[in-house]
Design brief:
With 178 residues, this protein is mainly alpha-helical. The protein has helices spanning 2-9, 13-34, 38-55, 65-84, 108-118, 123-134, 139-146, 150-171. It has two domains: 1-88, RNA polymerase sigma factor, region 2, helix turn helix motif (Rna Polymerase Sigma Factor, Chain: A, Orthogonal Bundle), CATH 1.10.1740; 105-178, Winged helix-like DNA-binding domain superfamily/Winged helix DNA-binding domain (Arc Repressor Mutant, subunit A).
Amino acid sequence: MESLIIKAQKGDEEAFIQAINAYMSPLYKIARIRLLSEDDIGDALQDTILAAYKDLHKLREPKYFKTWITRILINKCNDIVQSRGKVLYVEDYSKIGDDSLSFTHPNLDEEIDFNQTLTMLTESHRTVIILHYVNGFTSKEISEILNENENTIKSKLSRAREKLRAYYLKGSGQVLPN
């Protein structure tokens, strides 16, 4: 991937498109957690791609492209949330009206359960869980993306895991220790 980014920094538009395509699915998932409508998600992704293309020369280390573009996306999502006041708390997929979640989706039930479970977390805990477990970022990378101390990220991950653990134990009928 680094070689693609280096080519893109030298003006190879096709290399940039390939790099963006490689990360489009994880970027979409992050935007979907943060935003309400497909239009807002599309706007955030489009703004992210344009900003990344415009500022690609500012990326010092090509190996950090994924972290860098994710940070741009989160900032664009935050801008949309602030300007429109829309945040997605995944409670009811019927409100979304998204064709990609048709009943032929192979893991639809599991995806809905996962997203519904995430609604019991705060937005900041949801964000670190998605970045860590869905997108595979390390706590160090998440700290760079969110511009927070790495120990803060580790604490958020720990608290979120504990809340999820308690939620699942409660739901399974097990007695939770006080």
